[in-house]
Every structure is written in C-alpha cells, then in structure tokens.
Automatic annotation (TrEMBL):
Sequence similarity: Belongs to the HIT family.
GO biological process entries: deadenylation-dependent decapping of nuclear-transcribed mRNA
Name this polypeptide is given: Scavenger mRNA decapping enzyme
SUPFAM superfamilies assigned: HIT-like (SSF54197), mRNA decapping enzyme DcpS N-terminal domain (SSF102860)
Annotated GO MF terms: hydrolase activity; RNA 7-methylguanosine cap binding
Organism: Neoarthrinium moseri
InterPro entries: DcpS/DCS2, HIT-like_sf, Scavenger_mRNA_decap_enz_N
C-alpha cells in the first residue's frame, strides 16, 4: 500500500509544474494535454473534465477556484489525481465533488510527447508478413527498453496494491493468473464511465496477435472471471452492461483486456481500428482452420496510427513510400 509520505510527495509535484505549451485539446473541451517541466524534468500534464454532478448544493456555488487535490496513486513515472474546481464539500473527510481527473507523467519521454500531441492519423493494414518482419521486432524492442516496468510493479504487488479489485494469488495459477484494477483514466466514482483493466500474469502473450486456437478455453475462462469480479465489486452493474475488448495496437505490449460500462462514451480508444471485441476474437479463432497453433498472427489487421508514432514513421510510411516508388518505375 502506498505510504502517506509517497502520496504527499506525488501531490507536491502538481504545483511545481511549469507550463511550456499546449500539446493537444479534444474537440469537446474535456481534455487538454500540457507540456512543461517539474523540477527541471520534462513532464506532461493531462487534465480531464470529469462529469458534472447534478447536486443543487454544488451547482449553486460552482463559480470558484481550484481548491482541492487528492492523489489517487502513482506508479513509476505515472501519477493520477482528482481535483475540485468548486467549493470543498466534504463527506467523511473526502471531497464529494472533485471535477478534474488529472494525470501526470514525469519524467516524460519524446514518445510520450508524440503520443499526446495533436497529429494526423492514417488507416493502415498490417499483413501477417508485415507483422512478422517489422511489427513484431518493433514490439520486442519496446519491451526490452524497460517500458513495462510499471506493469510488472502492479503484477508483482509493488504498486497499486490497494487499487486491485480482484486477483489470483501471485504465481499460484501459472498461465491462469491475472488481476483487475481501474484504468488510470477512470475517476473511480462514475459507474457509467467504469473502465477496468484485466492484466494477465503470464509474459509470453504480448498482444492479441499472440492468441491461438489453443487459447480459446483460457480466453473464455478469463472472460467469465473478469465479468464475475466486476459485478461483485460493483453490484449496481449487470453482466450485460459490460463490454470487453483488446486494443490493437495496444499502448503497451503485455496482454490485457479492457472492461468498460456500455454507457461509457465511445472515444477514439473504442473506435473501429483500435478496439477489438474479446468475443469477436474468440469467434474468429474458433472459425480458423489448422491446428491448435493457428492464431491471430495469420490474419491481416487494419487500424489507425498517429503520424508522429514510430509505427508510422519507421514502418508504414516507408512501406507506403516504397510502394509508390515501385509503381512509378
């Protein structure tokens, strides 16, 4: 469990943020991404407008300054917070109406800056050959660069222990082991915006590309356990109010399943070219010919990539340019 001192240290970082420039702001004005520095280290500050409460006692005194900041957790270079732009109306010593969800990445890298910057997007098709020869080595390089440390912190119980809503005892169940905890972008209060992550213990599965016919029983088991853990943790939710999906490409290369409320507003992370339904993957695997080793690495997948991402600049743009050159010859 995070110590009080660790929480205080994390909360002290926000006032030290020195603004440099705006990287991005969504069309609805609910999220803005700022680039700056904290203690001379490059940092990203992502501010989300949480859903407005409809309580009259809050709305009647809404015009006020940001007055409250509570650290929800911190893991490696990531910290996330709730803050209040209205008066502090407390309930059991906690602010009832925090209306900012705040993420801090410090120190951030060039990859973080590119990911969060406003940029154009391309729709690409990743064939089995492109995956095998170019994307798979790219994934491996990312894993070997230490970019999964924060995931391993969670799996091994070093960070975010208090946030885990369900887990199999570490190491007990082998390939069947997994845990569930809130996605860092969820405010942990608005049920209709529920967003959980189901993270597997095993490290041989990097993405849905690694799933094979032999994994179908395991995937069905994971689906059942994830849904059961969610409805037990949040009794106001029923099974048919949940969606389970993978991201492809995922943000990080360690297999995990997203569990969200069906009412969650469909952002770009749930759009075509990003979210792939768990049930759809299972059905696709079931319909495949071949033996038990046949899997998702044998099909073409289409998805969106940002023009600033390494997937575009290092893989798909050169492929596109090369195709154009060959056609012109």
């Amino acid at each position: 469990m995070a110590s009080d001192e660790a929480k205080r240290n994390a909360e002290a970082l926000i006032p030290k943020f020195q603004f440099d420039r705006v990287l991005n702001q969504d069309g609805g004005g609910r999220r803005i991404t700022l680039l700056g520095r904290v203690n001379a280290e490059p940092a990203l500050l992502v501010l989300d407008r949480a859903p407005f409460p409809d309580a009259p006692e809050y709305l009647s005194v809404l015009p006020a300054n940001l007055r409250s900041l509570t650290n929800l957790g911190n893991n490696d270079i990531y910290s996330w917070f709730l803050g209040s732009g209205g008066p502090i109306l407390k309930d059991n010593d906690k602010d009832r109406y925090a209306d900012f969800k705040i993420d801090l990445i410090c120190p951030c890298t060039d990859k973080h800056i590119k990911k969060h910057s406003r940029q154009g997007h391309r729709f690409v098709t990743e064939t089995p050959a492109i995956y095998r020869d170019q994307v798979r080595p790219f994934m491996q390089a990312n894993r070997e660069a230490g970019r999964l440390n924060w995931v391993y912190n969670i799996i091994e119980g070093r960070k975010e222990v208090e946030d885990v809503i369900y887990r199999t005892p570490l190491g007990r169940d082998g390939d069947e082991g997994f845990l569930m905890l809130p996605n860092l972008h969820w405010d942990r209060k608005t049920i209709e915006a529920l967003h959980l992550l189901c993270i597997v213990e095993r490290r041989d599965l990097w993405s849905l590309r690694d799933l094979k016919k032999k994994h179908i029983p395991w995937l069905r088991h994971m689906r059942a356990k994830a849904i059961d853990a969610t409805v037990k943790s949040y009794p106001q939710i029923e099974e048919d109010q949940l969606k389970l999906f993978f991201h492809y490409q995922p943000t990080y290369y360690h297999l995990h399943i997203h569990v969200v409320h069906v009412a969650l507003e469909a952002t770009s992370t749930q759009s075509v070219g990003k979210a792939v339904g768990l049930d759809s993957v299972i059905e696709q695997l079931e319909r495949m010919g071949g033996d038990e080793e046949t899997g998702m690495d044998s099909v073409s997948l289409s998805y969106t990539v940002g023009e600033e991402s390494e997937l575009w600049t290092d893989i798909f743009e050169p492929l596109k340019t090369g195709r154009k050159a060959s056609l012109q010859q």
